[in-house]
Design brief:
homodimer; alpha/beta; 6-stranded parallel beta sheet; globular
């Protein structure tokens, strides 16, 4: 079975400033190993990508170092509202953080949010980390300023239902859900400890069922929210005496997303065609991403194995889905005419 | 000069349960002394008016005891979502509290708010106490569920500007501002102590100027948010040893609202016609209030005096505007053919 080169619209490649966790080369290698040939990477780096200069430097580096297409979002910051017009002309999208998570960007209060929406003169989406009441805030801004918004990593029943209602009203809202929120629950968080800790946190069984209930309708994209941290940072390797009180939230996902979805398809939980909608058609439409000629992903949808079927390429070297039985193996990835992944190996590294 | 019988869309008459602060008779007497012949009273009483039964009992009592027309809003409560359909058929509007204030009603989280909007099947407005980020939430719900909402006591620059933007987009939002937020600042809060403490708190000079900047456009109504508490409760009379740590927030306003606005009109800050829009035309339209035949208010717009020009009728017996120089005196109120206020006296008490 063949898919076009897939798109992950939400990854953290940790560069600049967090290259001990991941860099453009290791992150894009993990992408290829996971069937992704286009990535949208997040701006909560060090420095954060809140100015055109910082964004330009990072984007140039991403293009030079990455093994697939990587587009960096800019991050909204109250201190750099004046950068938004030039950013709007250059970046694929703007990311706004309305809730606490890992990294330096965070927008608080209606006035800065209003200024951001007023100064983002573009049809390009504003992507938001917006949980709970912040989700309602985001939808309000979309409605008031007639702005395309994309809600990242929706994880709760009430949230996906509110988004469904907003879409039914014709508001300009799209959304993504992560595999970990589709395939894990808070029970797994207990089992996994820091390796099952991310933002938004894992939900209840009821949340997971609600998300699956919207898989063919409200949910536009599946995105990994690939957020690597080292096992040392997670307090599970190295000098265990020096464990930080709070391990940083986030789990990697680039290499497990497609196997998980292929497995679900093999079980009849969604169709292979819907996987293509969620990982290719909708992401490309929402973010107006360029075509990639002679680019595709070959999978053996019947092949069963224990994940991972290859040494992980993400620099952090672990996955919350290790030891999981999968049905559906990525056998080959062709990127712009070149075979870049085959038989468990990224060939371009 | 003559106005039609005026409408105060936001008062707390404290009945049931708080009759030591105010009751329907004293509150409606204060209304007449202030030029108001129709009141919309709030449901954060004891018990709160969250069920049809409790609302019906209170409304019946209001009709029996009041000297003018008093309509009680119902209060939204997570525990009584099932009451909303019958309430929607009977009450003038639903009040939702999204921020902490005085009283027992409070709605938290998007799911109960969503249920409230979904179950309020009516063009009658949902009135909201919604400051800051809660304001954005309220607007989101209005946009998603295509529901008329009315934002109570807007007090901040960012808030009135966001509402202006929402109205410009055509969203179904109306709003009110209180006289204390138009005529006092946080400097007065320092001076007045507990007698200048209410929710929302008094704003900065910049907030006040922003509100005045929208007096002829964004602001639909002036409402007193008449919220009487006794001087004992405010810690300023009685057993001063027994002062509660936190005096309850709220100030009375029924008797000072029209004098303050007449004074502002005498200074050219708004027109007398605009006063009629804010206290009569818009309130009646927003809440679909009935006409009152042979009902009017006579004022001597040139008469100067020190407020109050009559012993206060509100049971709490004080005003944050005491000793203020006013220009514009209420000389007579006729309610349904009867003179009910003249020469500083409510005649129907």
């Amino acid at each position: 079975m063949r898919f076009p080169g897939l798109v992950d619209v939400h990854v953290h490649l940790r560069s600049p400033g967090g290259e001990h966790k991941e860099n453009f080369r290791t992150g894009s290698a993990a992408a290829l190993a996971g069937g992704f040939t286009t990535l949208l990477a997040m701006p909560n780096t060090q420095p954060p990508l809140a100015t055109y200069k910082d964004w330009r430097i990072a984007q140039t580096r991403a293009q030079r170092e990455s093994l697939c297409d990587v587009f960096l979002m800019a991050g909204a910051s109250e201190e750099h509202i004046d950068e938004l017009p030039v950013l709007a002309q250059n970046v694929p999208a703007l990311k706004v953080y309305l809730n606490d998570t890992y990294g330096p960007l965070r927008v608080e209060g209606i006035e800065p949010l209003r200024q951001i929406f007023q100064n983002w003169i573009s049809n390009k989406p504003i992507a938001l980390h917006a949980e709970g009441e912040s989700l309602a805030q985001a939808i309000a801004m979309s409605a008031i300023y007639n702005q395309n918004i994309h809600i990242c990593h929706v994880a709760r029943k009430a949230e996906i239902e509110l988004i469904a209602d907003a879409k039914a009203r014709g508001l300009k809202v799209t959304c993504e859900v992560t595999p970990h929120h589709l395939f894990l629950t808070e029970a797994d968080a207990d089992r996994l400890g820091p390796l099952g800790d991310m933002r938004p946190r894992l939900g209840t069984q009821e949340d997971v069922e609600a998300l699956w209930g919207h898989i063919n309708t409200t949910i536009d994209c599946i995105a990994s929210d690939h957020a690597p941290h080292t096992l040392e940072e997670k307090g599970l390797a190295g000098n265990l005496e020096a464990i930080p009180i709070e391990a940083p939230p986030g789990v990697p996902g680039l290499e497990s997303t497609l196997p998980l979805l292929l497995t679900a398809a093999s079980e009849g939980r969604l169709t292979y065609g819907r996987i293509q909608d969620l990982l290719y058609t909708n992401p490309r439409r929402i973010y107006a991403l360029p075509e990639q000629p002679q680019t595709w992903v070959e999978v053996d949808e019947k092949s069963a194995y224990v994940f991972p079927d290859h040494p992980l390429y993400t620099k952090c070297g672990w996955s919350p889905f290790e030891s999981r039985r999968m049905t559906g193996r990525i056998t080959r990835v062709v990127f712009k005419g070149n075979t870049v992944y085959q038989d468990g190996k990224v060939l371009s590294v």
